[in-house]
Protein: Radical SAM protein
Amino acid sequence: MQTVLFHSTIFGPIHSRRLGSSLGVNLMPDDGKVCTFDCLYCEAGYNAQGAGTTGLPTRRQVADALESKLKQLHAEGAPLDVITFSGNGEPTLHPDFAWIISDTVALRDRYFPQVKISVLSNATMLHKSDVVEALRLVDNNIQKLDSAKDDTIRLIDRPNQTSYSARRVIDQLKRFDGHVIIQTMMLRGSHDGVAIDNTTAEEVAALIAAYEEVKPQEVMIYSIDRKTPEEKLEKVSKDELERIADDIRRHGIKVQVSA
Structure:
């Protein structure tokens, strides 16, 4: 089973295709995965590997580790573009997520005031008011929407919430009043003999309709860049991503393509 985990709370900086020089913050265990999605393409592997034994880092542990790293980078004069919450699962699941974001804003302002704060989220915890308010504080509130069709999302992202629906997520994303970036993974292939493709004209049209409702500051479309748990997935070419992006741009939506 593929497991590519981050074995610390703070990691990097690493180069991000979409964000630049990124210092990562992992709010999940450092020896397991905890997520409300079980995506076929997740570089951290499937949820079946388990949550590990170390548990979630505390708010104090996150703040101390982050401050130590920021102090070091500041002393070295190291380049840094962004502090990014990602890691071994869904960061907004952490019970102290809102407080941790508040701590991070304060530390960023002290050591690297020019640096952005990003959160990569799958949009499954937007029913929690404290999570939403914390996301309003970050520079890049990046929320996932891989399809606007429930059947496709259940094939690709495999949410563990039986109540999950694209319609509900779209309505929740609208409440950010544009302070949101939508991230969409484009891919095709199969899983357990079932064909998967969110690049069809029907799928793209449904996504565009959702983007028009949400009115995000930007849409990021990208494709597979690393080994995936499901091996029968196909990377979408840069040229095809650009054609899809052009379709989206014709509706007045800003699009960033990563390939």
In short: The mean pLDDT is 95. Residues 59-76 form the longest helix (18 residues).
